[in-house]
Design brief:
mainly beta, 7-stranded antiparallel sheet, 3 helices, 15 strands, about 10% helix, extended
Length: about 240
């Protein structure tokens, strides 16, 4: 009949999702716009709403029926997408699946206590050339991450590279590049001491999920966040 998509958005609230849904969304590369008012839906799992959308794909007009349900740790979406001829049946399947949903108590664990702290990462490398025709490059990357126990979040990053080229023909040249970035917001975490997700809401209202993972025995790092290894460091300040 079409495509049935189920996904769970950790940390989200139903009313926030509803407000976002008023402006449409993108699914499988197609931009969909709302075709009727978002309406409450009565299901056994708890608060929910449903909405219809339409969009134009390379295969022709497509329609979407989506149901959003408030889950204990976020929002669950059950979404059906189909051509107009199949849309009615797929919408029925979408509603039936949403009606069958039952939530269990989430295993939140002590994720926030495990990952809270001040974290530091540094990486550097160099390539040194010798002689009249050679090049040398020095690269460094530093990242700082504050996961304050009171829920404040800060992130800073600095990347720099220095390059020198020696040439008998063209002379010597030197180049330097630096990039700095930072962001602030609020954070929470869901998971276990071994792995989970850090959910960040930035000051501009945007949201990001950062997976975390405990290191393997003997690893030089103490925590991996979004694939980057960090060490605890009280010397970087913050969280006062």
């Amino acid at each position: 009949l079409g495509l049935l998509r189920i996904n769970h958005e950790l940390g989200s609230k139903l009313e926030d999702v509803r407000a976002r849904g008023e402006g449409g969304f993108a699914l499988e590369g197609v931009q969909f716009t709302l075709t009727s008012a978002i309406t409450p839906l009565k299901v056994k799992a708890g608060p929910a709403f449903e909405a219809d959308y339409q969009g134009q794909s390379m295969q022709g007009p497509m329609r979407v029926h989506t149901v959003a349900l408030q889950a204990p740790a976020g929002v669950l979406f059950v979404t059906g997408m189909a051509p107009g001829a199949s849309f009615g049946k797929l919408a029925q399947h979408t509603q039936a699946m949403a009606a069958s949903v039952a939530f269990s108590k989430p295993r939140i664990g002590n994720a926030m206590r495990v990952v809270a702290g001040r974290w530091w990462h540094w990486h550097g490398s160099s390539s040194v050339g010798y002689g009249n025709n050679s090049s040398s490059t020095y690269l460094s990357s530093e990242k700082k991450l504050w996961l304050c126990p009171d829920g404040r979040f800060s992130r800073q990053g600095q990347f720099s590279v220095d390059s020198t080229v020696k040439s008998e023909t063209f002379g010597n040249s030197y180049a330097n590049a630096n990039n700095n970035s930072n962001a602030d917001g609020r954070w929470t975490a869901v998971g276990t001491p071994q792995a989970g997700k850090i959910i960040v809401t930035f000051q501009d209202g945007s949201r990001q999920e950062l997976p975390y993972q405990a290191p393997a025995p003997g690893d030089k790092f103490e925590l991996y966040v979004d694939g980057v290894g960090y060490l605890r460091s009280n010397d970087i300040g913050g969280c006062n």
